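Many introductory courses stop at the sequence. We go one step further.
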Amino acid sequence: MRPFKSITVLAAAVMVIGFTALPTVAQEIRFFQIGTGPTGETSFSLGGLIANAISNPPGSRECDRGGSCGVPGMVAVAKSTGGSIANIEGIAAKRLDAALVQADIAYWAYHGTGIYKGKGAVPNLRAIASLYPESLHLVARKDAKIHSVRDLKGKRVSFGDKDSAEMVHGRLLLTAFGLPESQIKISAMKPGPASDALAAGTLDAMLVVDGYPAPILSELAGRTDMVLVPLAGPEVEKMRGLYPFLSAATIPGGTYKGIDDDTKTLDVSIILVTGAERPDELIYGVTRALWHPSTQKLLAESHPRGKLVNLSAAALERLGMQLHGGASAYYFDANVIR
């Protein structure tokens, strides 16, 4: 694998790696970049934890002695990105070694369908694992009187940045509810600026696709009265039929300040992907480190979504895309698949 010219991306990683004094005999370090999402989102936080867990820098204590159980000689770094679509582009261009991507975006990219119908398939895209679900949060100012997707008519709305997965899901919602884009005032904004605009009263609603509690929404709920708009009914059931990667879900009451009732919504899984050109031995080691008991403990104790990262043969079968050869070999050896 080509060496990186710079390791400035280390500053973007949400991880703390305990480097011990390096031995005098030089040992080659392999850097492994993982594309995550915008800072403040679950994918960035969990991506940092995963990067920490699969790393095993030179000089680390041995795994069975309480040290790192990652890939020997590897330092993984979590890189903040624009999200799933940007991560797919990074894998296609071989700028990223791995990335966290929403399952529907990955499926469309792999098969050249959906939003990738005009762009064509990404032939080198491969799956490593299914990780955890993210929820669609359609958030509105309480005084905007938005109780359904149809109530967005004439409102000022952000479905994320122009190339974001939020924009894709926002348009799917509008289509399902028969609401033309021309009938709402769409502002393409990143989650941070959109949150500020909603709090300031210059935006009525925004869509955030993140695991709950989404940090940016927890912070927003402390600044302004907001509501979660339910995503339910025959329109949503039709969406689930068309897009099997969307599943019915509920955001529990009390997750966010001022919202006491449960809110029905949709979930989409986050998967870890890589490029077909990455060596089988490397991806085998990454997969093994991801599912090591020490990694599972770290994720479960460090983040609410981390408790949901569990190895499941059924989840692998629902990926709808090819596993990387190294990941497939690990699952075969671990008797997860046959």
